[in-house]
Amino acid sequence: MAHNRWLRWLGPALHHPRLWHMSRRGIAMGMAIGVFFGFLIPIAQIPFSAAAAVALRANVPMAVASTLVTNPFTFGPVYYAAWKVGSFLLAKENTPPPVLPGDVTAGPAAATPNGLPWWQRAWNGVQAAGKPLVLGLVLFACTFGALSYVLVTLLWRAKVLLARRRRRRAAARRSSER
After folding, report:
1. Residues of 8-41 as b/e, b for ≥16 C-beta within 10 angstroms?
2. Domain residues of the chain, as ranges?
3. N or C: where does the chain have the smaller number of CB atoms within 10 Å of the terminal CB?
């Protein structure tokens, strides 16, 4: 990376050892950053998470990899759930679900009973979904980002404690055999 002309300008920032080292804090922080940006930003998640990982001295590969929490297979269900949560929190029970152009069964010139063409209905659906969707995505990003940090930290701690317990048992067995 030091010789890549596109990354050379970053200089010493990319060569910090904490960015590439497998440590509990670096992995947990990288995972939290990646999940946060994975939920929050639909486009260019990877550059944003990598930049945040560099700025916060988190593990860059983990930050980049964990953005894939939203991918082409999970994108639709995650965004629909975020919209539902945002609608519930904004107390908009009567908010219509977003209308996608593929949902229109009639031809493109068909009008609804109130006289709006399909494209205007679709745009109105996007506008109606906007605030609840953004609120839901922000809530998901913060909640699941923090939760991933806590889970990685707890799992790492449990692994260390189990390894320590195994070493103590092995040492006790060796000392009792003598």
Report:
1. eeeeeebeeeebeeeeebbbbbbbbbbbbbbbbb
2. 8-72+133-177
3. C
